[in-house]
Amino acid sequence: MLGMxxxxxxxxxxxxVPLMMAFYHFKPSRVVILSLAVVFESGxxxxxxxxxxxxxxxxxxxxxxxxxxxxxxxxFLVGSYLGVLTSMILPDILLCAFLTVILVYLCGQSYFKGxxxxxxxAKALLEIETIPFSE
Length: 135
Description:
Layout: H1 2-7, H2 13-24, H3 28-51, H4 66-89, H5 92-130
Helix pairs in contact: 2-3
C-alpha cells in the first residue's frame, strides 16, 4: 500500500500516519517522525532507482530539474525543521486536529483539480468525436 501511495506521488505519509495510529496505537508525534523516515526512504528509492537516469521527454536532459531543486530544497528544509519543532511543542490532540484539517484541505484540492481535468479531457474528446472526417 505504501508503494502505491509513493508511486502516486503521496510519499506514503498520508497512508502511513493513519494506519500506525489506528493499528499500533502510536502517539501522533512518534508517527510523524516514522512517516518522515518512510517518505525519505521512498524518495531515495524513487530518485536513485527510477528518476535520476530517466530522460526528459521533450529535451536532452534528465527528468529531474536540478535548478528547481536548488531553489526549493532550502525551503523544504526550513519547513520540515519548523514542522518538527511544532510537533514537539503541540499537544497530541491539537497535532491530530491540525493534521486532519490539512489532510481534508489537500484531499479537497486534489478532488476539485482532478474533476476539472476530467471535465476538460471529456470536453476535448467530445470535440474530437464531433469533427467530421475529411477526405
